[in-house]
Design goal:
Strand content of chain B: under 5%
Helix content of chain A: over 70%
Number of domains of chain B: 1
Radius of gyration of chain A: 18 Å
Order of helices and strands of chain A: HHHHHHHH
Number of strands of chain B: 0
Structural class of chain B: mainly alpha
Radius of gyration of chain B: 19 Å
Largest sheet of chain A: none
Strand content of chain A: under 5%
Distance between the termini of chain B: 41 Å
Oligomer: heterodimer
Shape of chain B: globular
Distance between the termini of chain A: 60 Å
Structural class of chain A: mainly alpha
Largest interface: A-B, 21 and 17 residues
Order of helices and strands of chain B: HHHHHHHHHHH
Number of helices of chain B: 11
C-alpha cells in the first residue's frame, strides 16, 4: 500500500516535470527538468521489482539515474555553453498552447490507459501506462514544436523516459541486459547528437533546425 | 437554532482579515532588513479613511459610487459561505461553490465598472488586465474545486472542506497537493500579490489592481481595502482548509488550527513576495494556464 503511494508520487512527479518542460522558456530549466525526470523515473524499478530480484533492480536504477540524471544534463549544459546558443527555447507554438497540448496528451493517455489492459501490470499502479504514454507523447510534442537542436535532444530523452516508464510497468520479463543495452543506445545517441549540434553550429552559426530543410537540392 | 460555532469563521474573518495583510507586510519588512509598519497598520488606515470625506469627479456617475459598496456586499456574502479550518460557515448548501466563485467575480465586475466609469484610459488598461487574468484564473479555481468535490463527494465549500482529514491526505495526497498548489496560484493572482501583480507598485505599466482604485477616496477606498482584505482571507481560508487536515470535531480546536494555518500562509505569502520577482506581464497567462494544468491533473487523478 505504502509502496503504491510512492509509485504514484513518482509517476505524478514525472508528469509534472513533463508539464514544466513544456511551460518553461529557459533551455537551462528544461535540461534540469529532464534530469530530474530521469532521476525520478530511474527510481521506479527499486519500488516495483525489488522483491523479485534486488540486485537487478538496484543495478538498473543506478544505471539509469547515473546516465539520465547526471551524464545527460552535464553533457547538454556543456553543449549549451560551448555552442553559445541563446538561452530561450523559441518554440513554434506558444508556451500556453504547448501546455494545453500536454494536458490534452495526458487526458488522451488516461483514456487509452483505461481501455488497454496489458499483461503483467497487476502489481503496478493503474497510472503507470498513462504516465508512460503521456511522457512519450509530450516528448514528441517537444521534438515537433521546438526550434533549437538542443530541445530536440531533450524531446528525444523525454520519449526515452516515457518508454522506460512504460517498459518498467511491463517487465518482470525483460532481461537486465536488454535494459542496459537500451540505456547504452540512448547514451550514444545523445552523445552523437551533442556532437552533431557542435557541427551544425560551426557550419551555420546557429542551431535552428527549421532552416535545415533549405539544404536540400 | 443555529449552532454558535458557525459564527466563528465569519467573525474571525471580519475582525482579523486586515491583520493578514499586516503579517505579510511585516514578513516582507523582516526580509528587507527593515522594522516595518505596525501589524495593525491596516486597521489604522481603515479608520483614517472612514473619517474622511470623498471627492467625486464630475465625469463619474452613480456607478462609480455604487462600485465599492456592492463589491463589499458581495464579499460579505462570500465570508458567510467560507469555513475556517474544519468549522463550517453559517451559510452552506449544495452547489454553493458556484456562488462562492461568482460572488467574487461579481465583486471584481463592480470594481471594473467603477474603474471604467471614471473615463480614464489608465484605469481602463488596469480593468482589461484584471479581467483577462481573472478569466484565466477561473478554470484553475473550478477544476481545483471540482477535484475537491469529486474526492469528498460534497458540492458545498463548507461540506467538502469538512471532509478533508489526515486520512484523505494519506489516500489522495498527490491530488490534494496539486489542488493546493493550483489554489495558491489562484489566490496570489486574484489578490494581486507578487508573481502576478505587485501591490506596492504605482508604476503605470506594471500594476493591475491598484490602478483601478486610483480615483476612489475616503470611505469608498476604505470599503475597497477592507473588501480586498476579506477576499484575501476567503481564498486563503479555502487553501488552508485543504492543506491543514485538522478535524477533531471540537470546533474551537479546529478553528485554532485553521487560524494558525492562515497566519502561516500569510507569512508564506510574505516570503514569496520577498524572494520572487514579479512575472513579466506576458508570462502571467502561462503561469495561470500552468495552474489550470495542475488542477486538471488533480481532477483526472481523483476521477480515475
Amino acid at each position: 500500500m505504502n509502496n503504491l503511494v510512492a509509485i504514484e508520487g513518482i509517476l505524478i512527479a514525472v508528469i509534472l516535470t513533463d508539464l514544466l518542460l513544456l511551460g518553461s522558456s529557459r533551455l537551462r530549466t528544461c535540461i534540469r527538468m529532464v534530469g530530474i525526470q530521469g532521476v525520478v523515473a530511474g527510481l521506479l524499478p527499486i519500488l516495483l521489482h525489488h522483491a523479485e530480484n534486488p540486485l537487478r533492480a538496484w543495478l538498473l536504477a543506478a544505471g539509469s539515474v547515473a546516465i539520465k540524471g547526471v551524464v545527460f544534463p552535464l553533457l547538454l549544459l556543456r553543449v549549451l555553453r560551448d555552442v553559445g546558443v541563446r538561452r530561450e527555447v523559441e518554440p513554434f507554438i506558444g508556451y500556453t498552447s504547448s501546455l494545453m497540448a500536454g494536458v490534452a496528451a495526458l487526458i488522451f493517455s488516461l483514456w487509452v490507459g483505461s481501455r488497454v489492459t496489458l499483461p503483467g501490470t497487476s502489481s503496478a499502479s493503474s497510472l503507470m501506462i498513462p504516465a508512460g504514454l503521456a511522457t512519450i507523447l509530450i516528448g514528441l510534442v517537444v521534438i515537433i514544436t521546438r526550434r533549437k537542436a538542443v530541445s530536440q535532444v531533450l524531446g528525444y530523452i523525454v520519449v526515452e523516459n516515457g518508454i522506460y516508464v512504460f517498459g518498467v510497468s511491463l517487465v518482470g520479463g525483460v532481461p537486465a541486459l536488454v535494459e542496459l543495452g537500451v540505456l547504452m543506445d540512448a547514451f550514444v545517441a545523445v552523445l552523437l547528437m551533442g556532437i552533431a549540434i557542435h557541427h551544425i553550429s560551426r557550419e551555420f552559426d546557429h542551431t535552428d533546425v527549421d532552416r535545415l530543410d533549405q539544404l536540400k537540392g | 437554532m443555529m449552532d454558535w460555532t458557525a459564527l466563528l469563521p465569519p467573525s474571525a474573518a471580519l475582525v482579523l482579515a486586515p491583520l493578514l495583510l499586516g503579517i505579510i507586510n511585516r514578513t516582507k519588512a523582516v526580509f528587507g532588513g527593515r522594522k516595518g509598519q505596525p501589524l495593525l497598520q491596516h486597521y489604522f488606515d481603515l479608520i483614517k479613511l472612514l473619517g474622511k470625506g470623498a471627492t467625486y469627479s464630475r465625469t463619474t456617475t452613480w456607478v462609480f459610487r455604487a462600485g465599492p459598496i456592492l463589491g463589499l456586499a458581495a464579499v460579505f456574502v462570500v465570508v458567510l459561505l467560507t469555513p475556517l479550518g474544519g468549522v463550517s460557515g453559517p451559510l452552506s448548501f449544495t452547489g454553493d461553490l458556484l456562488l462562492f466563485a461568482y460572488l467574487l467575480a461579481q465583486m471584481r465586475f463592480f470594481t471594473v465598472l467603477a474603474a471604467l466609469d471614471t473615463g480614464s484610459s489608465f484605469e481602463g488598461m488596469g480593468s482589461s488586465r484584471e479581467v483577462l487574468f481573472s478569466a484565466l484564473a477561473e478554470p484553475a479555481l473550478f477544476f481545483g474545486l471540482a477535484a475537491l468535490a469529486r474526492q469528498t463527494g460534497s458540492l458545498s465549500i463548507s461540506g467538502m472542506l469538512a471532509e478533508i482529514n489526515t486520512q484523505s491526505w494519506l489516500l489522495h495526497g498527490p491530488a490534494l497537493a496539486l489542488v493546493a498548489s493550483a489554489l495558491l496560484v489562484v489566490a496570489l493572482a486574484e489578490n494581486a500579490r507578487i508573481p502576478v501583480d505587485d501591490p506596492n507598485t504605482h508604476l503605470e505599466l506594471t500594476m493591475i489592481h491598484e490602478v483601478m482604485v486610483l480615483d476612489h477616496g475616503g470611505p469608498d477606498l476604505a470599503f475597497i481595502f477592507y473588501g480586498s482584505a476579506l477576499k484575501l482571507w476567503v481564498l486563503a481560508a479555502l487553501l488552508v482548509g485543504v492543506v491543514v487536515p485538522m478535524r477533531t470535531g471540537q470546533a474551537l480546536l479546529d478553528a485554532t488550527a485553521g487560524l494558525a494555518g492562515m497566519f502561516l500562509l500569510a507569512v508564506m505569502i510574505g516570503v514569496v513576495e520577498s524572494i520572487m520577482a514579479r512575472v513579466k506581464l506576458l508570462r502571467v497567462p502561462n503561469l495561470l494556464v500552468g495552474a489550470t494544468a495542475l488542477a486538471v491533473l488533480a481532477l483526472v487523478l481523483v476521477v480515475r
